[in-house]
Design a protein that fits this description.
single chain; about 375 residues; Naphthalene 1,2-dioxygenase Alpha Subunit, Chain A, domain 1; Rieske Iron-sulfur Protein; 2 domains; 7-stranded antiparallel sheet; 4-stranded antiparallel sheet; 17 strands
Length: about 375
Amino acid sequence: MYREKIDVVFDDGDSILSRILQQQQSDASRAETLPPEAYNSDSFFRLEEDKVFRQDWLFVGHESQIAAVNDYFTLDVVGEPLLILRNEEGIAVFSNVCLHRWAPIAQGSGNSRSFVCPFHNWTYNTQGKLSGAPSMNQVQDFDRQQCSLPKIRHEVVFGMIFVTFNPHAQSIAQRLSPLSERFQRYHFADLVTAYTLDYDCPYNWKMAIETFMECYHHAAVHRNTLEDSFPGRLSSIKDDGPGWTICHQPLRKNGELSEILTEGLLPFTGLNDEQMRYSELVLLYPNCLLSLNPDRITISAILPISTTATQWHRVVLVSQESARQSDFSQTAERMKHGSVAIIDEDQWINAEQQRGSRSRLARPGRLSHLETTVWHLANYLKTRMAE
């Protein structure tokens, strides 16, 4: 009996990368997905870490999360625990690893003038300087005045905080300058945090981004939530650049503004009638996802943990006027609760997609014109990983 030979590439990152680089990058009508092995190979994941996440700029949060002096939050990025804070000089990003025996010195978020390692009480100030090290007086040539947490390069662009481990990376502000008019339209730098939401995703980081950035799946996955107001077939991919891709998501033709606006929030000032009737989904490569809406902005950091594990750090921003509404805390809670249903729908389908991608019969799939953003991400990865 004849059996088709199945050419399976086992965990060989270089071989997978070679196949990816052979895929065409010039004709969107011939676009296809990355090979399924690219979502399941540990060695390919390590290549992504080295060539993408440790070389490019990574979104970690919005400055309104640390609005007051001594505010801080923590985040693990590519296996690096980070401490993001506001001190007297402004925003700073440090390694969150104690210089003694490597325990993280801070957890979660809050406001503090010092950070005490829970292992041996070594203490650091908001400048990253070691200010206390108990029982070290008998150690030869130890000078705590010379001990400081490693500082991570960062830039703040329209209120968004980016970090990079690459000292030679081009300024992220320069890269994103063509988007400045769009960011100004939504008053990015003046927004405040309504709430944050962190959750774990049991699938590859690229699946999280790809699904967020296309509306083709609305009719199937979100048929009882998003599809009625935002039919996937009406979406379009109009804009991409060296550092981003954008999906345009319009409200249905006869849709009411109440379908796109959130009860309890005030729309952003300065938007015209057309801009009040659509959302935009934006990917700032490689890990920053934005949803631009007439009355709120969602910015997410997609943080790879392993081949099949990703952390999603979501920040929801509103105008200061909305935040001053007397019932704002209830509004924010309703927003958070409402988002969970859509998140759960994507969580389920992406977990199923991850399961299916492990099949030895899985092959690269052809992409619809409604999924051009998926192709754009693939092309970004090809460019980065070929360097």
